[in-house]
Amino acid sequence: MEKRVFKVGIIGAGFMGNTHTYNYVTMPLFYNDLPFKIKLVAICNRDLSKAEKLRKDFGFELATNNYKALIARKDIDIIDVCTPTLFHCEQIINALEAGKHVYVDKPLCATVEEAERIVE
Description:
Oligomer: single chain
Shape: globular
Order of helices and strands: EHEHEHEHEH
Strand content: 15-25%
Helix content: 40-55%
Number of helices: 5
Structural class: alpha/beta
Strand order of the largest sheet: 3-2-1-4-5
């Protein structure tokens, strides 16, 4: 049986974006017989040179500094938010509104009010 491929876009190419990228790439080394594969599609960072470095080093198809364009791509299933917490709420809501699955580390957002907006 062919494994499902989950196509990932990461917002943020700093420490956490680097860490999550490395984790996606090395996941098969730690978990035997994963029932899926990961494809790194796009990496975004406000400093485009950081996104370009990860694109070249890890094989993302695209590097951009426009997270909304990344979210709008039809070939991305999962948006991984790796930005500072103060940006999480808007990025999560935009991704959810675009029908994407979202992965974000804690904290989810900066305030209870933002969490309630995300839940809505």
